[in-house]
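User: Quick sanity check before I run a bigger batch. Here is a single chain. Can you write out its predicted 3D structure?
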Amino acid sequence: MSLKSRSLFQVDWLLSNLRWLLLISVAIVALLQSLQAGENLFSPILISLLLAGAAYNLIVMLLLVLRTFPKPLSALTLVADTALAVAFIYASDVPETPYLFFGLFPIITASLRYNWWASLGTALTIVLAYVGLTYLTYPQLSLATYFPVAVGGLILLLAALLSGLVADRVTRLAAQAIREEEEAELRRLRAIRERAKAIYEMASMLSATLNYRRILEAVLDISVVGLQDLGALANEIVSAVLLFGEDSLFITASRRLTRMDQLRRPPGRDGLLAQVINTAEPGLTLDPRHDPELGQFVAFQHCRSAVAIPLRAGFESYGVVVFGSPEPDTFTQDRIELLTAVCNQAIIALQNAQLYQELLAEKERIVEVEEEARKKLARDLHDGPTQSIAAIAMRLNYIQLLLDKDPVRVKAELKKIEDLARRTTKEIRQMLFTLRPLILENQGLTAALEQYVQKLRETDSLEIHLEVEPVEEYVDKDVQGTLFYIIEEAISNARKHAHADHLWIRVGIRDGFLFAQVEDDGVGFDVSRVQERYDERGSLGMINLHERTELIGGTLRIESAPGEGTRITVQVPLEEG
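Assistant: Done. Predicted structure follows.
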């Protein structure tokens, strides 16, 4: 409903209530006259008019309540009120009627709804009817007898002029007030639109940036934009973003905090901060200066109200955003909801930034893993086939010398070269097999391990014991492939560093877990020292073992001690169903 429509509704509602008052006044006047005269002056006509007036007013009020009061009906009600006023005059002792005051009602109605000309016309209509009824009822009256009629008519005409002038003045003031209110409403809507536009643009910027510090700075700027309806007070708002550290909160972005305040690290275990962290809901305090933790900040000592908004997404909490104001009634429910919406948008941007950083870290990790794989391949080629090929070349040179000096020994040397070449071929095939065994794709983990162990036995004197159960129906190809490389890495470490005589490989299902174990009886090592080297991105293939185990959601356990061999165990939980 517009302001003008609401104003007209209020006028019509006021007139309907005034109509009740006048109808009751007519009934009271009739009752008082009856008591004074000692006889019943409630004629059937008067009673009918009162009932008709009551029914008519009920219908008008019902239409107003139902918001179905059409504009043309206003003119009809004016005609009806005028007719009712004339009827009340007719129902009484016409020359000295006590109900002439009811004629004031349609006169005032005309002045309020239209103008003073309409008011004057209504008054003339009632006066002429008054004079006419008097003449028709008492045609033999002298001119002097018409004096009360003249006075009553003059009063109605003066009332019409006066009410018209007053109504015109009131209408102008009301129209001016409506215009001012509409302009204020328009300014408010424009401010809301501009604020929404600014918030949308800054929110888009939030989504576009992947720097979490810029995101948090933007949160405070957007919040100030959202509070522009406060006027100059918006520039006095104290604000800070506190993120979780190891054992406390630390400030990463702020507005109007002192340098000492920016270095403070509240624990978040008491007061408003603790309440917001524990409930994950916005919290408000009207006494921040006495808050156990906010009260430690100099900036909040000058605030009379403060609100804290949690930075939380699901079960992951990032921290809290706190706003303080020097006024106690700044943070209304609407403003708290606005600040919460801004912080929620920031959480999405923070998550995007966090995901981006994790992707960068994962990219770096993949590059490091690939680089480590290339280095491992280079080492394996250098320690194995490259050395063998170099040895073959040296023996061929030696055979060239033997052809001239001792041809009898050439045949034996050629046999040695043949054996060395065959062994080198097996080593190369074994390396190619470990890169991506086709049998793993076609027949699964069990067959791949059996073939791998068979190739190891052909090239290595290490006694290998394989104990493997069929697990292909429990895990998919990706998990089987990753587990194969974990076992291969553990075996490679044992061959290079353990100096063992025996090696045990065990694979099976244990208590809802895929179980894989590589054990040797070699020299062993100090696990804690190796783990320290692993944390520093050290050697011994521990990087690959840990990362590949995490990749399939498993756990890695390494058991060893100097002189007692090594046992590496991997457990991967099986999916239900």
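The longest helix spans residues 333-405.

User: Great, the batch can go ahead then.
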